[in-house]
Amino acid sequence: MTHSVSVDIVSDLVCPWCWLGKRHWDQARKLTADIKVETVWRPYQLDPTLAREGRPYKDYMREKFSGAEASGRWKAMRDHLEQAGPAAGIDFRFDDIAMRPNTLDAHRLMRWAGGQGRTAEMAEALFSAFFAQGRDIGDRDTLAALAGDAGLDSAVTADLLATDKDEKAVWEEELFYRKLGVSGVPTYIFNGRFAVSGAQEPAVLADAIRQAVKEPAETE
């Protein structure tokens, strides 16, 4: 009997490694096209303390990576991402980012996209908007427009964003994964049995999918 594979991808929409990880995941799926995989995107806020209106990006990063050692670490990471991006079809434009947004609303949007089977499209739209276009994905008008780009109803999305719908659900889901021990993203959880962390290469993720076939979820 061939078991299907369930994969939870825990991520944040302002994590550059998560966009790289998504592109690697897309490639891994092509390498394992013969295996049925259900992918579910899960919320994780890298900075849940950030004000809902966000902060100027340069100020935020300067504070986060203050000191020579931290600054050097960020530069090395940024250089690596800018070099690795093109191979995955990504053009990171960090200098064009104006705001570091709070991502709670973006995660609500991902949740609604999931209800319509559009999470892959929604994630791609959000990552691209933030990292390649310098758009503020904490701004609700921007989010409503991006929802339309991903195949959702932008007017309905705008109305929902004006409420607190699913805020509590997003917080609770994030807390669940934090309690599981997720402390960095992206994290891929296969059949609820084992996890792979980081923006691993497509071949590594493909191997994990094949391994998950041999380790089905306990409910199966």
Automatic annotation (TrEMBL):
GO molecular function per UniProt: oxidoreductase activity
Pfam families recorded: DSBA
Signal peptide annotation: none
Lineage of source species: Bacteria, Pseudomonadati, Pseudomonadota, Alphaproteobacteria, Maricaulales
SUPFAM superfamilies, sorted: Thioredoxin-like
Domain of life: Bacteria
Domain DSBA-like thioredoxin: 7-209
This protein's name: DSBA oxidoreductase
PANTHER family reported for this sequence: GLUTATHIONE S-TRANSFERASE KAPPA, THIOREDOXIN SUPERFAMILY PROTEIN
Gene3D superfamilies xrefs: Glutaredoxin
InterPro entries: DSBA-like_thioredoxin_dom, Thioredoxin-like_sf
